[in-house]
Amino acid sequence: MEYLEASACQQAEEFAVRNEAALESCGRLDTGEHGFKVTVKTTGQESSQAKASAEAVVEPLCRFDPPEPPPDPPEDTSGPTPTGPDDSGEEPDDEAPVVGLVCGGKPWVIDPDSPSLPGAADLFRVRLSD
Question: Is the pTM here over 0.85, yes or no?
């Protein structure tokens, strides 16, 4: 998984401001997990300021299982040899449904003519780790 650190930290800063706080630090986790650590400080009076840190881990809920390759056709030596990219003489179908995405144990089949894409909540879970 690849995350844009600048974008994630900008969102954290905007969230802190909405909660009357200022972002002090933000960066990727150094634990090897995918996620971020953020530290904020309240923007109230100096005598009543508080500081808090939190770590959030982003976990994928989906996996991609590539489709099984088709079985090799039996050898037929009696006729002409087919030609073409898949040896059938036909071009591959570029408009075939996308298969292989499995989220929460349920397969997603994405029809190119009427795509129904999973949302972020279907693809990932975010949990606080600290």
Answer: no
For the chain, the C-alpha Rg in angstroms (whole number) is 25
Say how far apart CA 109 and CA 115 lie, in whole Å: 9
In this structure, are residues 40 and 24 in contact, taking their beta carbons and an 8 Å threshold?
yes
* Residue 86 to residue 81: CA distance in whole angstroms: 12
Amino acid at 44: G
Q: Count CB atoms within 10 A of the CB of residue 83.
A: 8
Q: Tell me which amino acid residue 18 is.
A: R
User: Over the stretch 33-65, which tens digit does the pLDDT of each residue have?
Assistant: 899 999 999 998 877 889 999 999 999 999 888
Rounded distance between C-alpha atoms, residue 129 and residue 30, angstroms: 13
User: Greatest CA span in the chain, whole angstroms?
Assistant: 92
**86-130 pLDDT tens trace:** 555 555 556 666 678 888 888 888 788 887 778 888 889 999 887
**Within its chain, how far is the Cα of 40 from the centroid?**
27
Number of other CB atoms surrounding residue 5 within 10 Å: 11
